[in-house]
Amino acid sequence: MEKSFISFNENYKEIEENIKKAAEKSGRRREDIILLAATKTVSPELINHAISSGINYIGENRVQEFLSKEDALSTDAHRHFIGHLQSNKVKDIVGKVEMIQSVHSVKLAKLIGKLSNEKGIVTDILLEVNIGKEENKSGFLKEELQQAIEEVSKIEGVKLRGLMTIPPVCENSCDAIPFFEEMYKLFIDNRDKKIDNVSMDYLSMGMSSDYAEAIMCGSNIVRIGTSLFGARNYN
Ligand SMILES: *Cc1c(COP(=O)(O)O)cnc(C)c1O
């Protein structure tokens, strides 16, 4: 077996155990948490190996890269888009992924809705929250979220399914906890409002360095790249 396959197998086993432990510590079960493999820069061969090993959600970041790989990918995994999406690329991705996790503006949600309508489909979306108020990051500020949710709930062709975030890069995985807690509160507050056409099912947070902490704070989708596939090589 290829070396990259063997190290994937070892990494996957360890991550599964960590997810299970964190889920149980937060009063849930392993099945309550979705492990999404963040597959940017990973070859279709290795992605397909991951899928045949049990990974059932994959997420790509770049439209161009997704399009170049999509025909080679096993259809046995749910496909999400998790990267920054530019308006002119929306037409290339709508209908090809089950969920767009990284919706950072109402305008973008409207465009996804319009193109979904034209295809006769409804696209699931998450709203990205810029929880650390970072200037170089996209996403809604928490103060803008309420109004955005109300506006998005009225758009045909999209269904709001939850929230997603990437907290500021921290030196220590524990530093992300206050941001995760803040996200969980936003998630629960909005879930309890039971807004029409909104189904607050998913809170997508936690990556390689902090997924256990994210799960303990209430995340139910973790997006993991490096810890599964090894360090990325961008050439
Ligand atoms: C790359 C990426 C991840 C995974 O990051 P790792 O630190 O490699 O686990 C998660 N979410 C998004 C949006 C990403 O772009």
Question: Which labels suit this protein?
Answer:
single chain; 235 residues; alpha/beta; TIM Barrel; eight-stranded parallel beta sheet; 9 helices; 8 strands; globular; binds pyridoxal-5'-phosphate
How would you characterize this protein structure?
The protein has 235 residues and is α/β, with parallel strands linked by helices. The chain has one domain: Alanine racemase (TIM Barrel, Alpha-Beta Barrel). It has nine helices and eight strands. The chain has helices spanning 3-25, 44-53, 63-69, 90-93, 106-119, 142-153, 177-193, 211-216, 226-229, and strands at 34-38, 57-60, 78-81, 99-103, 123-129, 158-165, 198-204, 221-224. The chain has an eight-stranded parallel beta sheet. Strand 2 (57-60), helix 3 and strand 3 (78-81) form a beta-alpha-beta unit. Helix 1 (3-25) crosses helix 2. The longest helix has 23 residues, at 3-25. It is globular. The chain starts with a helix and ends in a 6-residue tail after the last helix. The model has no long low-confidence stretch (mean pLDDT 96).
